């Protein structure tokens, strides 16, 4: 892993495109809710805020830049946190649509999925008796027969489209093959270190949540990237805290947030993103680790700075 340091970057993924409004009353949907929860997460210790947008009327994921424009300036004015915009959107979107916010706003960081995959959300259908909006069960059921497309052409398109604005990427790797795809683009010179590698555990269609899965992904990344990468980890659902704790003890950085898990303990919904940040911060500090500030994160990841964005 690159840049041995006891400072741990905490990323908070505020709303995402996985969970639907019926699953939790605390999932932020409107621009005001997203902004407020993001600010609170930063105040709790998140150095990076990973951002999606939603239709304020029904909570459906949207990549319309106008939706992001409702909260990005407020976040820039209210917090020094690094703002990281998704290019993943949701599995039902085409890459051109998913790219638009990062292309328009030129953030310091944008996420980038490193491979096509099955992305199964349909098991969540059986956990809820009714839904607020008609689109929700349809969205979940559709994941039974949808491939989340991230082809070599798609990845190259995003990299080349953003090459002139200084945006660096959070490379989201859901399986071992995604690390090799990232190495391919590094070898071609389309990405440069330090690589910010976010390994994702627990999505149906990606790698599992066993401790050996975590260790295997780290071993593979170490072999492929040596000291030219920064490792971060997220665990989906109830595996969020066990996996981030394990990764932190192995020298990794961590990601939490309601995009990845709605929970704050067994059977207890997290009432905010900040609640999860505070919980992982307690774990990290209990391990004797220091929480990275936004400026620490900018230095570790070689970012261009918050004054160089287009919002």
Quick overview of this protein structure:
This protein is α/β, with parallel strands linked by helices.
SSE inventory with pairings:
Blueprint: E1 7-8, E2 10-13, H1 31-44, E3 48-51, E4 53-54, E5 61-62, H2 65-68, H3 72-78, E6 82-85, H4 95-105, E7 109-113, E8 117-118, H5 135-142, E9 147-148, H6 152-161, E10 168-173, H7 176-187, E11 195-201, H8 211-225, E12 229-235, H9 240-249, E13 253-256, H10 273-286, E14 290-291, H11 294-301
Parallel strand pairs: 1-14, 2-3, 2-13, 3-6, 6-7, 7-10, 10-11, 11-12, 12-13
Antiparallel strand pairs: 4-5, 8-9
Any overview of this molecule?
GO terms for molecular function: 3-keto-5-aminohexanoate cleavage activity; metal ion binding. This is 3-keto-5-aminohexanoate cleavage protein. Keywords: Metal-binding, Transferase, Zinc. Its cofactor is Zn(2+). With 311 residues, the chain is an alpha/beta fold. It has eleven helices and 14 strands. The protein has helices at residues 31-44, 65-68, 72-78, 95-105, 135-142, 152-161, 176-187, 211-225, 240-249, 273-286, 294-301; strands at residues 7-8, 10-13, 48-51, 53-54, 61-62, 82-85, 109-113, 117-118, 147-148, 168-173, 195-201, 229-235, 253-256, 290-291. An eight-stranded parallel barrel has the order 2-3-6-7-10-11-12-13, surrounded by seven helices. α7 (176-187) runs parallel beside α8 (211-225) and α9 (240-249) packs parallel to α10 (273-286). The two termini are 33 Å apart. Residues 1-5 have low confidence and may be disordered.
